[in-house]
Amino acid sequence: MQAAAMDPADEPPSMLWGLDPIFSAFARLFVRDILQMTESTQVPGIYFYNLHPIYKVDVLGTVVYKRERDDFFCYGVDDGTGVINCLCWKRNLLKEAEDPNKSGTKKHSDADHGGFDPVAELKKLGQAQLKRCRLEIGELVRVRGPVKTSRQQREIMASTYYKVDDPVMAIQIAWMMEVPQLYRQFYDKRFQINAAGYSAESSINKATNIIQDFLKQKLVTKFRPYDVQDLLQPLIPSRHQAQSAEQEPLAGPSGCQQLSQLLKEVLQILQNEGVVYRKVKSQDEMYLVTTQDKDLFIAVKDIIREDSKREKYAEKGCHVLHILSAVRQRYSLNVSKAALELVLKTLECDSDIISTSDTHYIAI
To answer: Which of 28, 52, 98, 117 would you label with 193, given CA atoms 20 to 30 Å apart?
Structure first.
């Protein structure tokens, strides 16, 4: 495929890429998005997803084709969204294990009779490494490395790769549950730079993490905005710090207004992600922490247990939208789908319910 080039006007300056934490990490992107990323006009080999600068990725998928040369393997890896070439170089130990002229030439020491034989153990290690690096079609592989475009084709130059033993698909299921979370929390949030050279979303992200850590560490069940507002105070610069050297009066919102607006945005993010919700919308702005609301968990379990016995849901289970409708009728109109999915995930991890598909659940 031909790598699409980024518009220079839209591309953030390369000297600011390091402000994005994704830049220094192996991004766990779907193959579809890796193939569709736009390439930087400033630095070849750097790609952009939602303005996030990316040059190395982490992929888990099935080998759908293979090609072997003297120095490398070329595997086609399919993660369910697309297929990408992965160029996996052979290490020297691997080459020696394959070369009959170099294997078995060294003799064992006479001093190691009945004891530890380092030569034999090294040979076993080489055989194990060879087994893990040589994959067949249909086997699961994990590949990490930089993305390159060679001969108009996007591929991964593997720095690390190995066969994954996953007989019950536990690793694949965990991967497919984690990656969408990374998209929601990081990749799908655009990386923006303001005039000062800092991420425009950094203060919101920091504030969100501060509130979430507080709720988790203190096991908070419910709270009002003023209970957590002071936690965000260090993120708001004082007017004295913000004034210019000429001591000119500043225009714009006051520190109190900025703090209130920041908290409002954070609470909206937490509601969108289902972390908190308001059971009753009234002037008393009370928020409940979803994972700590035992009454909500009981209501969801009762609905699934009762409705799973009905003939309509006995075989496949209750659809998530049916459960959501029932929860809103019997418990609270303000429970969001995101909050319900968080409850369902927790109940499934606790073995109170099981999923029969991506959207259907039955009680155990």
So the answer is: 28
Candidates 61, 99, 58; CA nearest to 77 is: 61
What is the pLDDT, as a whole number, of residue 318? 93
The answer to whether 242 touches 251, Cβ cutoff 8 Å, is: no
For 72, how many CA atoms within 13 A lie in the half-sphere containing its CB? 13
Query: Structure pTM?
Result: 0.51
Distance of alpha carbon 361 from alpha carbon 341, whole angstroms: 11
28-39: pLDDT as tens digits: 999 999 999 999
Residue 187: closest CA among 177, 198, 179, 175:
179
List C-alpha distances in Å: 326 to 246, 275, 308, 313, 334: 62, 20, 13, 14, 12
- Using alpha carbons, select from 349, 28, 35 the residue that is nearest to residue 180: 28
3-class SS string, 262-311: HHHHHHHHHHHCCCEECCCCCCCCCEEEHHHCHHHHHHHHHHHHHHHCCH
- Can you tell me the distance from the alpha carbon of 170 to that of 180, in angstroms, rounded to the nearest whole number? 16
The answer to whether the CB of 274 falls within 8 A of the CB of 339 is: yes
Q: Where are the alpha helices (DSSP H) in the chain?
A: 31-36, 92-98, 118-133, 170-182, 202-217, 225-228, 239-242, 255-272, 294-308, 311-314, 320-330, 337-349
Dist CA 85 CA 68 (whole Å)? 13
Give the number of C-alpha atoms closer than 13 A to the C-alpha of residue 237, restricted to the C-beta side: 8
- Nearest-angstrom CA–CA distance, 265 and 122: 57
> For residue 214, what are its two tokens?
């507080």
- Nearest CA-CA partner of 166 in 262, 60, 51: 60
Reduced to 3 states (helix: H, G, I; strand: E, B; else coil), residue 6 is coil
pLDDT at 313 over 60: yes
CB atoms near residue 201 (< 10 Å): 15
